[in-house]
Write a structure and sequence with these properties.
It comes from Urechidicola vernalis. The chain contains five helices and seven strands; from the N terminus they run H-E-H-H-E-E-E-E-E-E-H-H. It is of the alpha+beta class and 174 residues long. It has a single domain, classed as Alpha-D-Glucose-1,6-Bisphosphate, Chain A, domain 4 (2-Layer Sandwich). It has a seven-stranded antiparallel β-sheet with strand order 1-7-6-5-4-3-2. The chain is elongated, with a radius of gyration of 19 Å.
Length: 174
């Protein structure tokens, strides 16, 4: 009986230690330079329906079901999706628009697991054209935070961001 008690105490202690050292937040971003004027790039990015043209997840599930609520390009517009196991389901809502600076949104994932992240597309004028920074951040809640000890969010999503930004560049520079 004492052995079982020690095992249970050990497991509880291990879970506690892991929860203390686990990452509590994440922030992933990538950038690219697009050879187009700032206003043109920003005015394209503010419309969520256009993301289907360059999103890496649109390629992972070309049959993804999309629904839209509200007026695209305005705060409160929601783009929702239901897709295969590679894209899951969820919705993205425009939460802020700073003209020629940033499109902010909230990502609400429903499947394969529930989570909420803050996403952004930031633009800035540089000599070569327009720099676009695409990123998202959020908090890791227990027990997901423990899983993040063994998973690198930057590696998991960073490649998708790079793929999407390269496709965005090709789309806008046509």
């Amino acid at each position: 009986m004492n052995t079982v008690l020690y095992i249970i105490i050990g497991i509880v202690a291990l879970i506690f230690v892991l929860s203390v050292i686990a990452p509590k937040s994440y922030d992933v971003s990538r950038s690219i330079v697009i050879n187009k004027p700032l206003a043109e790039v920003y005015n394209y990015l503010r419309f969520l329906e256009k993301q289907h043209e360059w999103s890496p997840w649109a390629e992972k599930d070309p049959n993804m079901e999309k629904t839209y609520t509200g007026t695209d390009g305005e705060v409160g517009f929601i783009s929702a999706w239901v897709g295969n196991k590679d894209v899951g389901s969820g919705e993205q809502e425009i939460t802020g628009l700073k003209e020629n600076l940033e499109v902010s949104s909230q990502l609400r994932f429903l499947k394969p697991w529930k989570s909420t992240s803050d996403a952004y597309l930031r633009v800035s004028e540089i000599k070569e054209g327009t720099e676009v920074v695409w990123g998202f951040s959020g908090n890791n809640k227990f027990p997901i935070s423990i899983m993040m000890l063994f998973m690198n969010m930057d590696k998991a999503v960073g490649g998708d961001f790079e793929f999407g930004l390269n496709k965005l560049k090709r789309t806008l520079e046509k």
